[in-house]
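Contributing new complexes? Match this layout with T3D.
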Amino acid sequence: MTDLTLLVEDVGAVRVLRLNRPASLNSFNADMVSALLAALEGAAQEASVRALVLTGAGRGFSAGQDLTAAGVSDPDDSGTEPPVPDLQAIIERMWAPLARRIRSLPVPVVAAVNGVAAGAGANLALNCDIVLAARSASFIQAFSKIGLIPDAGGTWLLPRLVGRARALALAMTGEKLSAPEAERLGLIWRCVDDVALMDEAVALATRLAAMPTQALVETRLAMDHALLLDNEAAVQAEARVQGRLGHQHDFVEGVRAFLAKRAPVFKDR
Ligand code: T3D
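Output block (do not edit by hand):
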């Protein structure tokens, strides 16, 4: 399936979604939000999809909100100020659902950050389970430069990924962080040579696709949830999740395959 603003391709059990507005560094207008939400929903519904890669076309991953479509315009000739956009409504319609859907997908999600990732574009990538980036890519919490705070889950994610001191400095200064530096700080998993990015991302997603999907997704949910719990509550929550997973085919298959010294065939999703 091809949409003007989003390219969709399947590589085996891996669905690759490519943001496709390269002239504006894949900044998001309403069409691209709708296309991405629909594609995420499609991937969630299709049992043959066992992992997802999110990347961008051209030299950028995403520059966040398309500022030409942000609803801000100049005063008219008489100096009358036009109405300002309702940002709360925009966030609730666009960025919150996108971030939420990525974090709740029933399959693992790999971001392949091919170039600059700015504003909510950066934070969409950081919502993915594993973030790979091209060595030449960069991350910018651009919000402060236009009088905003990090959104698309940025206020929750950034301190958890890199700690409060670095999170505040990145968000307040809006400084560009290179991919190697992002890796060093723990903002992302790894950066790789530019030419190798897509091969590495698809190979990683293919590996994840062959693994027990439910366990991977429950790992994401349990870790995110555990951040809100004390140790005892987290240990108890682990027991409940293991209790559920223990009734699944993939657990029995994994143990049987180990004991039989054969490769497991996982199929739960
Ligand atoms: O407003 C709301 O709805 C609230 C929601 C907010 C969520 C957010 O994401 S807020 C943050 C929005 N994003 C930004 O502020 C980033 C703006 N872009 C930049 O700062 C720079 O473009 C970059 C640092 C990302 C890259 O710089 P550079 O020098 O590599 O590229 P460039 O020349 O600035 O951009 C290339 C083209 O993309 C250029 O168009 P042109 O001149 O070739 O026709 C530029 O205008 C366009 N572009 C880049 N970012 C955006 C954009 N067009 C629209 N919206 C953008 N966000």
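Reviewers usually confirm one structural detail per submission. For this one: The chain has a mean pLDDT of 96.
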